[in-house]
């Protein structure tokens, strides 16, 4: 059975070029970059090179790049590190559609006595800038809003938000995990103070992340230990993964155009054909401001896990915001925050593409989606009721 | 990914008895679109009032569809009274088990069956008579109590897995806790007094050896000594307890009976149900 992998917002394939540059650091070049001898020194040099590659990709200075273990650590470090720097301020602003790395952390901080404002989104998943303006006070320690949403791909007006926030002198963090590699990022021309990035979402392995910290941003280390990362993150550098991430960022920069032309066209093609061939489907999220690789569709009157497992049976790997797959009993918090009706929220499927996907793969999905949905609708008690009701109108 | 058994996968990929019976004798509907799963069960009786045919339509995940399919297979050929004896455990067992988080799918099957039989008998199951404890999923105290009883549930989390109650805003958790306490209190009172059987902690080898020694010393040897006999523990191999009889016991004609009916019974009572006692002769 062939595998058609369209779950790249969950994780991506490690690029062969990335693996290749990593391997020698497991065998030959195992030195500790902090060591004084030549053996560690040569490793240090290449860690620095990787830092430059990441900086170049983000339009940042190498000194502004801190390597972490994952996106979640970057998010935790940004928020906790910032709160620690402003102990007198106990108000945080975020959104209702954040990844759990931010969402659950904010819930935790709320229990610990911080005041949390969660900005709402509209039916299209868009934020309201006026709500942000009204929420900022002189007690606000920081604002953290994701760059682009992992489930719908909706891109937020981060620069405009940054301007509002900066005007008040408040640090501004964004979880850029889904945006990096999919849309251009340039910290030199940005209002962002801190940005989180995760290696495994852009063809580096799992277990490596980055926190970009703009020069001059107040920050206390989250992981306290050695002098590594200029004292901003203790722990011996994860050298092979840092080398790999450097390469992945170099490739991501090179592939950005492909992502925004060919991959976007593939996504649009997939979306268009599904809308054409299956009745009662809706697209979740603002189609005008969306990551080029992501589409979230809801099939009414069927349940997402069932769709996923039937797709999986054909080798197609996607994901869903349905209750049964989110590990809770309610559909995803993102779709609920958007007010997607229950008839549709339970039947949501997300396809997220990468540069490795092909037109043939899209055709394979397009061929199999209609019979799968029909099959489940034939089992669903609501479908016939719906058709009957429609006939009576 | 959920760890579904092959049986669940089979009943999901090839569901049996999908559809709706025309002019059914009974119809049962439970769940809703908002809840994320729903089941409509229809059945027809034969002249002997046994379920001749049963069909289902289900909106839900793989385990909901598989549970519905299993339910229809289980109840075919049963009288209504027999069918009412089917528990959600029976449905789960038929499928070779369900992940605990998905047990509510089997409960939904049992509820649909109950509703369909009540529908045939002209009874009404109205939720109004009962208190709705979980407002997010519309679960009543009766449904929660039943699930606790039938599945021996102990925690709020388990109640959520089995009934969905408490899986939304979590506002009803204190109420669910109170119901668990009440029902478990009743269950303990109703349960026949049991000594040493039922749910026993699995012992490590060391614990088992110690417990055997203790039991022999406290419960068995004193009684044997009273009759002028004695017993020595020689070895323990798994569940096999090797002993040598001493004193009067060593030449007692009923020593075999003593070993099996007395020593073994006591050890089974206090240590483990599968203990076997064997005599080692010099």
Descriptive account of the structure:
The complex is a heterodimer of chains A (393) and B (282). Chain A is globular, with a radius of gyration of 22 Å. Chain A folds into two domains: 4-9 and 256-380, Alpha-Beta Complex (Aspartate Aminotransferase, domain 1), CATH 3.90.1150.10; 16-252, 3-Layer(aba) Sandwich (Aspartate Aminotransferase, domain 2), CATH 3.40.640. Chain A has 393 residues and is of the alpha/beta class. The longest helix of chain A is centred in the middle third of the chain and has 39 residues, at 239-277. Chain A is 45% helix and 14% strand. In chain A, helix 5 (100-111) links the parallel strand 3 (91-95) and strand 4. With 282 residues, chain B is an alpha+beta fold. The model of chain B has no long low-confidence stretch (mean pLDDT 86). The termini of chain B are far apart. Helix content of chain B is 45%, strand content 18%. In chain B, helix 5 crosses helix 7 (156-163), helix 6 (141-151) packs across helix 8 (173-190) and helix 9 packs across helix 10 (255-270). The A-B interface holds A 301-306, 309-310, 313, 322-325, 327-331, 342-343, 346, 378-382, 384 and B 2, 12-13, 15, 18, 20, 29, 33-34, 36-40, 57-62, 64-65, 101-102, 136-137, 160, 164, 167-168.
Tell me the number of strands of chain B.
8
Radius of gyration of chain B: 26 Å
CATH class of the largest domain in chain A: Alpha Beta
Order of helices and strands of chain A: EHHHEHEHEHEHEEEHHEEHEEHHHEHH
- Identify the overall geometry of chain B: elongated
CATH architecture of the largest domain in chain B, please?
Alpha-Beta Complex
Identify the most extensive interface between protein chains: A-B, 27 and 30 residues
Low-confidence runs of at least 5 consecutive residues of chain B: none
| The CATH C-level class name of the largest domain in chain B | Alpha Beta
Whole-number total of structural domains of chain B: 3
Report the portion of residues of chain A in β strands: 5-15%
Helix/sheet category of chain A: alpha/beta
* CATH topology-level fold name of the largest domain in chain B: Sufe protein. Chain: A
CATH architecture of the largest domain in chain A: 3-Layer(aba) Sandwich
The level of helicity of chain B is 40-55%
Distance between the termini of chain A: 45 Å
> What assembly state would you assign to the polypeptide chains in this entry?
heterodimer
**Kindly state the mean pLDDT of chain A as a whole number?**
95
């Amino acid at each position: 059975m062939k595998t058609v992998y369209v779950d790249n917002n969950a994780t991506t394939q490690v690029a062969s070029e990335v693996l290749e540059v990593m391997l020698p650091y497991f065998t030959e070049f195992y030195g500790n970059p902090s060591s004084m001898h030549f053996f560690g020194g040569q490793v240090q040099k290449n860690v620095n090179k990787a830092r430059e590659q990441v900086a170049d990709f983000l339009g940042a200075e190498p000194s502004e790049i801190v390597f972490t273990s994952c996106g979640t650590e970057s998010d935790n470090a940004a928020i906790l590190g910032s709160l620690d720097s402003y102990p007198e301020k106990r108000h945080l602003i975020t959104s209702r559609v954040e990844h759990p790395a931010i969402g659950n952390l904010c819930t935790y901080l709320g229990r610990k006595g911080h005041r949390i404002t969660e900005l709402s989104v509209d039916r299209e998943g868009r934020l309201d800038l006026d709500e942000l303006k009204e929420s900022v006070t002189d007690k606000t320690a920081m604002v953290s809003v994701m760059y682009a949403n992992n489930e719908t791909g909706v891109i937020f007006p981060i620069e405009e938000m940054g301007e509002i926030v900066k005007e008040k002198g408040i640090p501004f963090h964004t979880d850029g995990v889904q945006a990096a590699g999919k849309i251009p990022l340039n910290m030199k021309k940005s209002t962002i103070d801190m940005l989180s990035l995760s290696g495994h979402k852009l063809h580096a392995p799992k277990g490596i992340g980055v926190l970009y910290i703009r020069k001059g941003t107040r920050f206390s280390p989250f992981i306290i230990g050695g002098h590594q990362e200029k004292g901003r993150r203790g722990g011996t550098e994860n050298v092979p993964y840092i080398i790999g991430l450097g390469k992945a960022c170099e490739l991501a920069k090179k592939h950005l155009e492909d992502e925004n032309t060919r991959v976007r066209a593939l996504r649009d093609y997939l979306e268009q054909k599904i809308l054409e061939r299956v009745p009662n489907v809706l697209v979740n999220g603002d189609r005008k401001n969306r990551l080029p690789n992501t589409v979230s569709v809801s099939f009414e009157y069927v349940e997402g896990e069932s769709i996923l497992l039937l797709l999986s049976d054909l080798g197609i790997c996607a994901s869903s915001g349905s209750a049964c797959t989110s590990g809770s009993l309610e559909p995803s918090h993102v779709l609920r925050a958007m007010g997607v009706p229950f008839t549709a929220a339970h039947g949501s499927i997300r396809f997220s593409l990468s540069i490795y996907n092909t037109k043939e793969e899209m055709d394979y999905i397009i061929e199999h989606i209609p019979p799968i949905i029909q099959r489940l609708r034939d089992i669903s008690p609501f479908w016939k009721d719906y058709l009957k009701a429609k006939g009576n109108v | 990914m959920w760890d579904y058994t092959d049986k669940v996968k089979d009943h999901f990929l090839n569901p049996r008895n999908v559809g709706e019976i025309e002019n059914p004798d009974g119809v049962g509907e439970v769940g809703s679109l908002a809840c994320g799963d729903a089941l409509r069960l229809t059945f027809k009786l034969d002249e002997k009032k046994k379920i001749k045919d049963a069909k289902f339509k289900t909106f839900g995940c793989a385990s909901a569809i598989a549970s519905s399919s299993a339910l229809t297979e289980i109840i075919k050929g049963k009288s209504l009274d027999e069918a009412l004896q089917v528990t959600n455990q029976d449905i789960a067992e038929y499928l070779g088990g369900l992940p605990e988080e998905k047990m509510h799918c089997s409960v939904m099957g049992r509820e649909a069956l109950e509703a369909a039989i009540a529908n045939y008998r002209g009874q009404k199951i109205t939720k109004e008579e009962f208190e709705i404890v979980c407002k997010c999923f519309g679960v009543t105290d009766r449904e929660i109590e039943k699930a606790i009883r039938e599945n021996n549930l102990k925690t709020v989390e388990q109640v959520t897995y089995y009934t969905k109650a408490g899986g939304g805003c979590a506002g009803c958790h204190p109420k669910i806790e109170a119901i668990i306490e009440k029902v478990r209190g009743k269950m303990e009172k109703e349960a026949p007094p049991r000594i040493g059987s039922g749910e026993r902690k699995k012992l490590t080898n060391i614990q088992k050896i110690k417990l055997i020694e203790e039991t022999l010393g406290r419960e068995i040897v004193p009684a044997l000594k009273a009759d002028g006999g004695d017993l020595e523990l020689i070895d323990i191999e798994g569940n096999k307890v090797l002993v040598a009889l001493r004193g009067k016991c060593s030449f007692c004609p009923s020593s075999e009976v003593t070993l099996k009916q007395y020593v073994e019974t006591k050890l089974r009572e206090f240590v483990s149900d599968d203990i076997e006692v064997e005599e080692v002769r010099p």
